Description:
Number of domains: 1
Distance between the termini: 56 Å
Strand content: over 45%
Shape: elongated
CATH superfamily: Immunoglobulins
CATH topology: Immunoglobulin-like
CATH class: Mainly Beta
CATH architecture: Sandwich
Amino acid sequence: MKIFKDPDLKEEIKAINFGKVKVGQSKEVTVWLLNDSKGILTNLAFEFSSPLPPSEKIEVVKAPVTIQPGKAEPLTLRWRPSAKFEQALEIGIRVTGEIVYVAKRKIEVEEEVKK
Length: 115
């Protein structure tokens, strides 16, 4: 899986940057998750690594449950800092889930043509 900053999938990122957000306000950031495998990614879950204390939370606003092979889906996150955390925020993300491979079969059918 690859993570992109833009829906055109031109700017790949390794971390999600919220920047500085004023206390009492919130900021939403949307990134695009690209399934670069040949299988269907499903039952997706998200874990974040950040310098945030336990009292601070990253909220998942909108997230895909399944991503088809070669497709990208948006992930929207929200952060509302408290007075205890007045600095810019950049977080890492770990995506876990299951991968399902679907076998394609070619079926040949013979038909008898009656006159």
